[in-house]
Amino acid sequence: MKEIYLDHAATTPVDGRVLEKMLPYFGERFGNPHSPHAFGRRAAAAIDAARDEIASLLGARSSEIYFTSGGTEADNWAVRGSVRASGKKHFVVGATEHHAVLEAAELLKGEGCELSLAPVDEYGAADLAALQGLLHKDTALVAVMAANNEVGTVQPLKEIAAAAHGCGALFFTDAVQAAGALELNVNEIGCDLLSLSSHKFYGPKGAGALYVRAGTPLAKLIAGGQQERGLRGGTLNVPAIVGMAEAFRLACKERQERTSHIRAARDAFVQEILQTIPGVRYNGHPQQRLPGNAHFTFEGVAGDALLAALDLAGVAASGGAACSSGSPEPSHVLLAMGRTEQEARAGVRFTFGKNTSEEEALRAAQIVRNCVLRLRSR
Ligand code: PLP
Hints:
Bound molecules: pyridoxal-5'-phosphate
CATH superfamily of the largest domain: Type I PLP-dependent aspartate aminotransferase-like (Major domain)
Largest sheet: 7 strands, mixed
Shape: globular
Order of helices and strands: EHHEHEHEHEHEHEEHHEEHEHHEH
């Protein structure tokens, strides 16, 4: 039986059209974009074009885009770089943020900064009144992700941006999971910083970008050469950056058809699960969620046991963040949503992609049902 991949939030395969664009930069166009000769200039021209493309798709200026090694570096840079440069001590981070943001926040605490976690409701949506109550004139930054990587809940970004700016704080949004699924325009959102990661939208791994609104003070995170306008040392990964720009262009251009296809497959799966398996809880927001995300807890079934059974049966799913799988810790996202420790260990995430067919979705639902019933009968 063919395997079914339902873990697109962890990573996506590189689109063939993206790979085509990348290949010359491993071969004849191998130059270092920082070299002052023709080989370097050709690579630099590709970097400039990639920067222009990503900027224009976000409604930003090219000079506001910085390349990084991925979402984790972009998140660390946004949080640590902006708070350190602000001269203020306090900052606010959403309770359900990715570990890249939460761990960066912990490091700042070690430097004497004061962190407040902004609570969410039972669906994982930011509690705006509570968030507002945490802000004061010494707040440097508010960091709330565009969409959650575990339960898929989409956050009210414009409202959060307005609240942050109302007290003189910057607003950063981790848009790693939202990119390709939601329209992202930095001016409509009103963010000062925004992070992207290429491998979540059919680009290569190890490439990311940080948008930094012109005039935003930002301390450097990676010291070294004068790359990225002196703010981020290190030779740029030219093939990956070229691939990321092409992948983002295709993701934006094809967004509507991709998301309606993905949503249909996801909805068919969810309906089948809810109709055929008793004792199921569908986690996350019923409407304000990513089109490709389905997240469940199955009563009486441990998440890791179900994932192992699914893996054996050829279905690849996840317990939440790929980087925390294998860890016995309960999900901080489900805990923040008010679930018990036991429930927070039982979550299983299925994430659909542009190549997932409805037939696969329905076959996967059958397999989930068989595995859940078998585990419950033990
Ligand atoms: N932020 C979110 C919301 C994510 O889901 C991820 C990866 O899963 C990251 C950041 C980290 O991105 P990367 O894998 O490029 O380091």
